[in-house]
Amino acid sequence: MDFKALLCGKISLDDLARPEIYSLLNFEGILLPPFMEDMVEYLNSLEKIAKCNHIESIEELGEEETKKFSESRSKEAG
Fold first, then answer.
1. Is residue 14 domain-shared with residue 41, that is, in the same domain?
2. What does each C-alpha distance from 32 to 4, 6, 69 come to in angstroms?
3. CA-based, 20 to 30 A from 39: which of 4, 5, 20, 33?
4. What residues make up the domain containing 40?
């Protein structure tokens, strides 16, 4: 997942995957939160948090579950 792209604006995960949206993102001058400065450490921390909360990765989910996850995220966003 490209966290820097998500920080460029209010972008959904679905839109982030669209080439026409991604090409419009402006990464110049983007400020990362301090906890994201070491991205390897941040991603390792996220993995540990997910395991502690018994959360599977999206890649491990089947197509049906991925669709449900995406729909639920869209509803949460409003």
1. no
2. 7, 11, 27
3. 20
4. 32-78
Which amino acid, residue 3? F
Q: Are residues 12 and 1 in the same domain?
A: yes
The pLDDT tens digits for 22-67 are 888 888 888 889 998 898 999 899 889 988 888 876 555 555 555 6
CA–CA gap between residue 51 and residue 9 (Å, rounded): 28
For 30, the token pair is: 């983007």
3-class state of residue 24 by DSSP:
coil
Q: Which residue has the tokens 């090409």?
A: 23
Do 49 and 71 have their domain in common? yes
The number of folded domains in the chain is 2
pTM of the model: 0.53
